[in-house]
Amino acid sequence: QVQLVESGGGLVQAGGSLRLSCSASGSIFSFTNMGWFRQAPGKQREVVATITSGSRTNYADSVKGRFTISTDNAKNTVYLQMTSLKPEDTAVYYCAVVHVINWYWGQGTQVTVSS
């Protein structure tokens, strides 16, 4: 069983930055894919950024150039650095990983961007 704990969310003004962290209970070397997703009120959950075990990254068009996903293997942690935040980035952000064939999700962390 994989457990994920997100942190780093909060309230920030438009144009500001936040860094989200996702700490995993197991070694991230065992995860084939890791990613950040978000869900805004009344909307479906959407992918924000993903990173493979080979460090290949992919981003939603809406965050390209502003967000960066990265990992710290020694700390078993996945990060999402968010810059130039916009009010439309407001959502609950979830960390997720793929271990074997299963997806595991964190509890989510709220990010609110004020205009």
Describe it:
The structure is a single chain. This protein has 115 residues and is mostly beta strands. 0% of the residues lie in helices and 57% in strands. It is globular.
What characteristics describe this protein?
globular; 11 strands; seven-stranded mixed β-sheet; 115 residues; mainly beta; 57% strand; four-stranded antiparallel β-sheet
Rough outline? globular
Query: What is the helix tally?
Result: 0
Radius of gyration: 13 Å
Alpha-beta classification: mainly beta
How many strands appear in the DSSP assignment?
11
Residue windows where pLDDT falls under 50 for at least 5 positions? none
Please give the alpha-carbon distance between the first and last residues: 40 Å
Element order: H for helix, E for strand: EEEEEEEEEEE
Largest sheet: 7 strands, mixed
Give helix % range. under 10%
Mean pLDDT: 94
Percentage of residues in DSSP E strands? over 45%
List the helices and strands and how they pair.
Elements: E1 4-7, E2 10-13, E3 18-24, E4 31-39, E5 46-52, E6 57-59, E7 67-72, E8 77-82, E9 91-99, E10 102-105, E11 109-114
Parallel strand pairs: 2-11
Antiparallel strand pairs: 1-3, 3-8, 4-5, 4-9, 5-6, 7-8, 9-10, 9-11
